[in-house]
Design goal:
Length: 222
């Protein structure tokens, strides 16, 4: 797709500003099935709050964003997975403040270097009972990463255009604790980017598709 190489910051801004965009349909495209995207009304209390960041910056491959490989921790249900930088909200923080603080702590940036350009639809994560707010930020140059060794086991850089490359999408049948799941994932340098991270990126992908070529999501990935 030639348009993939033409994605620029104005395309991203336009994608984030789309009106009447079907967030749920876009998220569902890369959601494991069966999977709920909403919290059950039967659960007590409120979900825990968190934020993540899609941090964009220019590289030779065009606009690129950073992913992290989570360090292995026995009490973390997402341990070892590929994810967007982010974490739990602290008392008194806004979603944007959480995304900035957590991202800069994890990958070694000063918060003032990041320009926040928008946000994506919030997402519920059933295994950890978190409601996650994705924030989109921008750096004007490719950074030197200084990852927190306690939280981050590795850094991956993904050109934004890869989200629009269908050859980088895979669908597999997995089994978790005796349950069968059909799992779509993005192939990023041979790594499976799936679950909540893929769902968030799917919304960004389809917002960009609508801006670039007018296509919008209708059905989940088969």
């Amino acid at each position: 797709m030639p348009a993939m190489s033409l994605i620029d910051l104005e395309d991203v801004r336009a994608a984030l500003a789309l009106e009447h965009f079907d967030v749920l349909a876009a998220q569902s495209r890369m959601a494991p099935r069966p999977r709920t995207l909403k919290r059950s009304s039967s659960l007590p209390g409120e979900p825990r709050q968190a934020s993540v960041m899609v941090l964009l910056y220019p590289t030779e491959a065009g606009l690129t964003f950073v992913l992290t490989r989570r360090a292995e921790h026995p009490d973390d249900v997402h341990s070892g997975q590929i994810s967007l930088p982010g974490g739990s909200r602290e008392p008194g923080e806004t979603p944007i403040q959480t995304a900035l603080r957590e991202t800069c702590e994890e990958v070694g940036l000063e918060p003032e270097r990041v320009t926040v350009i928008g946000s994506l639809g919030k997402l519920y994560i059933p295994p950890s009972d978190f409601e996650v707010y994705p924030v989109v930020g921008y750096l004007d140059e490719q950074p030197v990463w200084l990852p927190d060794a306690i939280e981050v086991a590795g850094i991956l850089e993904c050109p934004l255009a890869w989200l629009l490359d269908d050859a980088r999408k895979v669908v597999e049948d997995w089994e978790f604790d005796g349950y069968a799941l059909r799992v779509p994932w993005y192939n990023v340098h041979g790594n499976r980017v799936w679950g909540a991270t893929a769902i968030i990126l799917s919304e960004l992908e389809h917002r960009l598709r609508q801006v670039i070529d007018g296509n919008s999501p209708e059905h989940p990935l088969a």
